[in-house]
Design a protein that fits this description.
This protein has nine helices and eleven strands. It is of the alpha+beta class.
Amino acid sequence: MDEQVRTELAAGRAESSRGLLGEAARFWLVERPEPDMRRLKLGLGIVANASNLLVGAVMESPLAYASLGYLMERLVLKATDLGLGTCWVGHYDPKWFPELGITKREKTPVAVAVGYPTAKRTAQERVIRIAIQADRRKPWDDLFFAGPSEAPLSREQAGPYAHALEMVRLAPSAGNTQPWRIVKNGLKFDFHVKPTNPKYEERHLHDVDVGIALSHFELAARETGLKGSWNVQAPDAPALNGCRYVISWDGGK
C-alpha cells in the first residue's frame, strides 16, 4: 500500500475514537504477509490475496455493534476515496492478532480487508454476487415509513432528507439483507432492526449493518446542510412489526 495512502487512513482511524454513545473505540490497520492472511481463511476463505486488514474494537455498550459499523463504514468510505477496494469480513477472530491487546470488554465482530482491487472479478465473486443479488436494493416502500400510521414514506414526504434516505437504501449489508427500517415523525427518524437471518442476528451482524446505515444517513444529511444529532429515546410509535428500536436522529437539534 502506498505510504501516503497509509498515512491518510491512519488519520481517519485517529478520528474514529468514540461510538454513538460516546463509548471508546480503537481501530488498526494490520499488515501481514499474504500467505499468513490466507491461512486465516478470512470470510471462510473467500477473501483472496489480502495483506492489509482494518480491525476495530468498541467498548461494550447497548450500541457497541452498531457503533462499530458506524465508525468502520467511515473508514471504508475514506479508503474508497483513496482508490482502495474493501471487503467486509464477518468470519474473523480477533485472537489472530494478539498484538492488538483487544480486551474481553471490547466488541469486535467484523473486520475489513483493504487493498488495491483486481481489474476483473473472479468467477467465485461473480457467483456470490449473483446469489445475494448484490446489485439490487429493496424499494423505498419496504424500508421507510411515515409514523405513526406506518404507511410507506414517499420521497415527497421525506423532503430534504430524501437524499440521506436514498444513501441508506444503497448501503451495503451482510448478505445484502438490508435489515434497517426507518420511521419518520416530523424531523425525527427512528431507526429499527428487522432481523432476517438468524445466523447474522446471533453474530450481531444486523446491528453492524444498521451502524453502516446510520453513517450513510448522517454523512449525506451533513453534506446537504442538514443539522441533527443521534439520541436513544422512546420512539414516537411502537416498534415496527418484527423490529426492535435502535436509535433516533433528531433533526431539530
